[in-house]
Backbone:
């Protein structure tokens, strides 16, 4: 493979990472989750993205005094976790939701706190993914803007993301 081909592959992979992280960040901002910053690092093993949020609220609905609130908080976490993949899907028309990181494992763990029954858990997961996809679709322009800025500046704080989205 020529050097030029290598470079163009890494540029397109980088773009995909920025779209993925922008999806998480935009969902955070829209759903009222405390976002500290997002960043993109490019190391020897390729790009690596992070979305750094504030601390989780207490997320065990069985122990929480306000079970409805706890459920809502977990559902919000699930939607934010779906958002990276949903943004990739939106921009790349991917249907397999084959992600860049371990979001699927986290989504599964969160859903297990909400539903023990496997069928109901899958239904809930699909329902929350549907809501997340609509959110990504409605804020497509904001995601693109955040991704472009992330590629250029490598890190963005919450207020910068908010300004581009809201
Ligand atoms: Zn992710």
Residues:
């Amino acid at each position: 493979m020529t050097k030029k081909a290598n470079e163009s592959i890494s540029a397109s992979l980088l773009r995909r990472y920025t779209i993925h992280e922008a999806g998480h960040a935009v969902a955070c901002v829209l759903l009222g989750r405390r976002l500290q910053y997002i960043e993109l690092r490019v190391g020897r093993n390729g790009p690596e993205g992070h979305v750094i949020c504030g601390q989780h609220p207490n997320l065990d609905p069985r122990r929480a005094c306000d079970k409805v609130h706890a459920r809502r908080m977990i559902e919000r976490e699930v939607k934010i976790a779906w958002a990276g993949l949903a943004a990739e899907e939106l921009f790349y028309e991917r249907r397999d939701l084959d992600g860049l990181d371990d979001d699927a494992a986290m989504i599964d763990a969160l859903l297990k706190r909400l539903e023990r029954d496997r069928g109901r858990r899958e239904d809930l997961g699909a329902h929350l993914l549907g809501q997340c996809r609509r959110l990504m679709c409605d804020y497509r322009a904001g995601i693109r803007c955040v991704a472009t800025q992330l590629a250029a500046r490598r890190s963005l704080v919450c207020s910068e993301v908010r300004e581009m989205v809201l």
Q: What stands out?
A: The longest strand covers residues 35-43.
